[in-house]
Batch of 2 targets.
Target 1
Amino acid sequence: MLKLTRSALALVFTILALPRAVFAQDVALVFEALDTNDDGLVSLEEARVNDFVTESFDDADTNGDLVISREEFFAAYGPE
Ligand SMILES: [Ca+2]
Ligand SMILES: [Ca+2]
């Protein structure tokens, strides 16, 4: 069980470590991977696994409610 969890985490980490350009192409996938509790929002706690999102969290959270909604996430990280 622990072993399975570890490989699942490793997979998610690989997805989340994608460079910025690739990140934009798979933004929906990254959002799903970050939203570990599936509430449709990425909290600062959930964002912590990705340095890029953590660093830009305040900019992405445009309404300042300390979570990034799907709309905010796509606006911040999606393709132009
Ligand atoms: Ca969440
Ligand atoms: Ca927000």
Note: Residues 47 and 53 are 6 Å apart (CA to CA).
Target 2
Amino acid sequence: MSDIFTEETRDRARAIMARYPAGRERSALLPMLHLVQSVQGYVSPEGMAFCAEMLGITKAQVAAVATFYTMYKRRPTGDWLVSVCTNTMCGVLGGDKAYKALSEHLGVGHDETTEDGTITLEHAECLAACDYAPVMTVNYEFFDRIDADRALDVVKQLENGERPQPSRGPRLCTFKEASLQLAGWADDRDGAVGEGPAGEPTLAGNRLAERFGVTVAGFDPNTPIGGNGNGSGPGHSVPPTAPKPASDGKPAGDTPAVGKESK
Ligand code: FES
């Protein structure tokens, strides 16, 4: 094992593992992959070996997870990961043009990094902000309702060493800093935490529902999230015919249709 991962990183890995019940430390793999990404800017073969060693699992098991999720990068990532949504909603509203403009300006394509190693470009398939379409993110912070010019403006500020302010949420931090936050270490700098209510585009549907008296039958808006703790609150009801878990402890699947015998 190389010394890329210092004792401080090992301490952090142990702290992540301690969040999980004894014997279930392998559940720490997801944040631990963010941790190694915070050190190297991507999940390298050494990073996978580090996770495997700390968790007592195989490198193949780590690789199976690391290669599944797009937030784990397999190649060195720049300080600034620029993700442009080119999914249908954003694409037709200008996301495709913005991505093309950035690709031409930076001279890189999808999942490629500029020669100086500072900016990685990728196209993304729905960044879950369709109400602000078209959107792009820098290290997962949103820039809403962009067009090609606005996207270029943001990237040029990054090239100049500036940190443009996202449309909402906290101020920008580097990809490695963001990875450390995702591993569970809060950023205590001023402005590092975004606060405030949901924006108007997000609430538009709710406002229309209020205006036209559209409600969900039987729904109590004052119900605490999580219900009453015994699993009987809205959204947490247990169907009377819920199947028992299989003997291997895995979920048994969908509730069988009433009157339908399993063969
Ligand atoms: S389609 Fe772009 S955020 Fe959903």
Note: Confidence is low (pLDDT under 50) at residues 227-243, 248-263.
